[in-house]
From TrEMBL:
<dbReference type="GO" id="GO:0000981">
    <property type="term" value="F:DNA-binding transcription factor activity, RNA polymerase II-specific"/>
</dbReference>
<keyword id="KW-0539">Nucleus</keyword>
<dbReference type="Pfam" id="PF04082">
    <property type="entry name" value="Fungal_trans"/>
</dbReference>
<dbReference type="InterPro" id="IPR007219">
    <property type="entry name" value="XnlR_reg_dom"/>
</dbReference>
<dbReference type="InterPro" id="IPR001138">
    <property type="entry name" value="Zn2Cys6_DnaBD"/>
</dbReference>
<dbReference type="GO" id="GO:0003677">
    <property type="term" value="F:DNA binding"/>
</dbReference>
<feature type="domain" description="Zn(2)-C6 fungal-type">
    <location>
        <begin position="24"/>
        <end position="56"/>
    </location>
</feature>
<keyword id="KW-0479">Metal-binding</keyword>
<dbReference type="InterPro" id="IPR050987">
    <property type="entry name" value="AtrR-like"/>
</dbReference>
<dbReference type="GO" id="GO:0006351">
    <property type="term" value="P:DNA-templated transcription"/>
</dbReference>
<dbReference type="GO" id="GO:0008270">
    <property type="term" value="F:zinc ion binding"/>
</dbReference>
<dbReference type="InterPro" id="IPR036864">
    <property type="entry name" value="Zn2-C6_fun-type_DNA-bd_sf"/>
</dbReference>
<dbReference type="Pfam" id="PF00172">
    <property type="entry name" value="Zn_clus"/>
</dbReference>
<protein>
    <submittedName>
        <fullName>C6 transcription factor</fullName>
    </submittedName>
</protein>
Amino acid sequence: METESPATPSRQYRTRRRTLNSRACDRCRRRKAKCDTLSPQVPCSSCRLADAPCTFELPLARRGPKARHRAGTSLTATEEESTIIAIDDETTAQAEEDADDRLNSTTLLMQEPGQGGFGNGASISASPAASWAGSLVEQPPLTALQRWQRLSLALSLANADPDQIVSRCVDLFFKYLYPLTPLVHEPGLRSDLDNFASGSSLTEIGAWRADSAFTLITAVCAEAAFLLPSDVFPESNEAVGHIFLRASRDCLHSYLEADLESPDANSIAIRYFHSNCIHATGKPKYSWHIFGEATRLAQVMQLHKESSLEGLAPLEAEFRRRAFWIVYMGDKSAAILNNRPITLHRFSFDDDLTTAFPMGLDHESSNLSAVSPDTPSSLPMQSSSLITGFNANLQLWQAASELLLELRLLQDTQRDSMVTGLLARSAPSVEQRQRLDALYVHFTTCLDELPAYLQSCTLATASGQSLMHTTQLVIQCANLQVSFHCLRMVITQRFEDMSYHGTSLEQADLRRTEIARDMLRVMQEAPFWSLQVNGEPYVEKIRLIGASLLAIVHRNPGSPLATRARADFMVLLDTLTRLDSKASDALRSNMM
């Protein structure tokens, strides 16, 4: 029988894993958690966070079948124990060798979640035999650098150059997606990316910090791969997006407990990116679940209070503000566009919502001054700052949500009055009308003070800024204006449902067609790529307008209103088809 060379990978692995520093500590073994200790003298991150001793005192369980001996043969206690130990060692060694052979025959892309494996498809699982074999070997936790090496291998197998595709993802993210989701500090991310590419400086920042950096980088790359259209990012494909997403999800799983116990701004940003990517794959329920994790972290961190940011580094405080407000805005968007329950509103908190709007970084200047969300006139208007458009979007959704929440409270009051015996729906009181009118005026005028380049995509294109900055301004402008008209449609329909304005149904439908035409003008003025990079939320806004037009067509057969609504609907449907949206087929079938 040929003897295996000590230099072979499987023999090196077995020798390494039998040493003490490859064992899980006692606390992690009891809790069946991953342990990242490197030696008995260095506590694992879980024990450090819990301020608990990191010990290795629990005895190792014996492995393998019990010893058997021939009938009639008597062994002394010492001989029996020696025989059992010998059989245990032989069985364990054979099991490990068989497991190594099976694992070596299984591609690295088919590992169980949490072990660093990630597939080049939507979901690739190991075979039952490989999973059973893998369970026999307690694998040591992967380092961030090992995960990076596996990521490079997976990208290579997907016919993508690892360094080139990662660099391209990061560049395109900051050019096209950062204006809408400024949740990442670009200099810091690029510095971490350089460390991974060179394989240096990772041991100096600690295992948890390195894992977090890897998770964020791959989440950003997944966001770019999933959300950017092929016209903008021809080198990417769905397989590449799944590789990045699986790598990011697996790495997050490896330090999940520590991340939940000590979250930071990146903890929310990573989950927000994961939610966006999964939503783009057509899994809205799963996406909503992951978005809920980001929402709960924001609540646990009490990010609705500006005082929760005291004592933090300026950069961390700024990105926590951004993380809170983008989750706040996403919560309202999901409620309005996808009929989800509102989670974050003024009644959700024991205290008032005092967190300031983000302040902007001149890449990013450390001279930061907070902007109050309660003072519209204090919204920064520096023409060179992208945070102006971001804050305007926050202000728009905040104004709309306050109005819609007030309308909901009024509807509940009217419903309660009907239940208590009043057959007719009671009209709003003078005080209620004044409150609603003030909120409606605030919503309608909340974008009036914006710079011209955020009120017109044509003016944004001619803003005189650099090409990259002009691109970002056009994206923000298209998103702002389409969101505004979409919210106008929603609010108008809510008012009509309450018979608030007292107009006829035809007049109400006419008002809806005018809103739809305002939105069509924005869409036709904006470059098509700016519609594409706004992603699935943009499609959902178009779909909402399309559904309103369809209702007008069905309510007014033979009327000029139906003719107008049908013509505008066909334009929307053509845009949805060009956007390659799953919503276009459903709308087309409803029209036929």
